[in-house]
From TrEMBL:
SMART domains: CLECT. This is C-type lectin domain-containing protein. Residues 37-155 form the C-type lectin domain. Keywords: Disulfide bond. Signal peptide: none annotated.
Length: 175
């Protein structure tokens, strides 16, 4: 007798692709990055924190949605404030749009948020010479001088493909 979990383990990405490609009515697929956040209680400047995270994890934390905020708050407890992987690129202010609306870049990609998600602290008063972003215990963001020594949040992520068929959902890592 076959164990159903053994059968699932034998299903490859090629099989899933073929199933969805040739029989699109049988399944719906999507992919997303599942992040595991890691709070590092070591005081470093933003650049050194980025280097540390890239050596031991994937990068400084990337937060793209409220779902990421909830996941971060469930996984780590930020004591005070901590660096995340968001940094201002003042050179882009006038090159791209003539304004600074699109100048914040995620460390891992060097790009702006794909969906425009932001969680800025509303009472931030200083908006110059602060090119790096810290997060507080409530998961709100604040721009800060990159040379400040703070704890930081790293992440590891794995891109997953979710395939839902009429009979049973599957979750598979994407190679």
């Amino acid at each position: 007798m076959h164990d159903r979990n053994d059968e699932r383990d034998k299903i490859s990405n090629d099989h899933i692709y073929a199933l969805c490609h040739y029989f699109p009515g049988l399944c719906i697929s999507s992919s997303k990055v599942l992040r595991q956040f890691h709070y590092i209680d070591l005081k470093l400047n933003w650049l050194d924190a980025q280097h540390y995270c890239r050596e031991k994890y994937d990068d400084l934390a990337t937060i793209q949605s409220m779902e990421d905020i909830i996941q971060l708050k469930n996984q780590v407890r930020v004591s005070g404030t901590a660096w995340i992987g968001l940094r201002d690129d003042p050179n882009s202010w006038f090159k791209v749009m003539g304004i600074d609306a699109n100048s914040w870049r995620w460390s891992v990609t060097g790009e702006t948020s794909q969906n425009g998600y932001q969680n800025w602290f509303s009472k931030n008063q200083i908006m110059y010479l602060e090119y790096c972003v810290e997060i507080d215990g409530a998961a709100t963001w604040n721009d800060m001088n990159c040379d400040a020594l703070l704890s930081f949040v790293c992440y590891t992520g794995k891109k997953m493909c979710f395939v839902f068929s009429y009979s049973d959902p599957l979750t598979l890592p994407i190679n």
